[in-house]
């Protein structure tokens, strides 16, 4: 009787550990630039790809919660540019229109909700505006 109870307890613990491991975390995702270097100007389209790290597959249908573009990499975080979402074109690609008025590095900060993921996925991607 005690042996059956012990086996049942071990089985229950194994099942609970398996279910916990199957749940993804916000850190299981990464944003990468589609093109890291762009021509400076107004209405520049920047695009990022959202990938699931474990599979390397693009993540479609994420809901954009927050975006910000500024020049923090150039020690000018107060120099923010307006940013608005535009169609990305391919699965897992999220595109935004912004102004890159001067040459230099720009930081795109993102927060998105991924379906089935309880945590908000946060990412930062650096783009370089050139003449």
Rg value: 21 Å
- Label the overall shape: elongated
CA-CA gap between termini: 78 Å
CATH topology: Immunoglobulin-like
Number of domains: 1
What features would you highlight for this structure?
single chain, Immunoglobulin-like, 9 strands, five-stranded mixed β-sheet, elongated, 131 residues, 16% helix, four-stranded antiparallel β-sheet
Summarize the structure.
With 131 residues, the chain is of the alpha+beta class.
SSE blueprint and pairings:
Blueprint: H1 2-22, E1 29-33, E2 37-39, E3 41-52, E4 63-71, E5 76-81, E6 83-86, E7 93-100, E8 104-113, E9 121-130
Parallel strand pairs: 2-9
Antiparallel strand pairs: 1-3, 3-7, 4-5, 4-8, 6-7, 8-9
Describe the protein in words.
With 131 residues, this protein is of the alpha+beta class. The protein has a single domain, classed as Immunoglobulin-like (Sandwich). The chain has one helix and nine strands, in the order αβββββββββ. The protein has a five-stranded mixed beta sheet with strand order 2-9-8-4-5, with no helix packed on it. Strand 8 and strand 9 (121-130) form a beta hairpin. The radius of gyration is 21 Å and the shape is elongated. The termini are far apart.
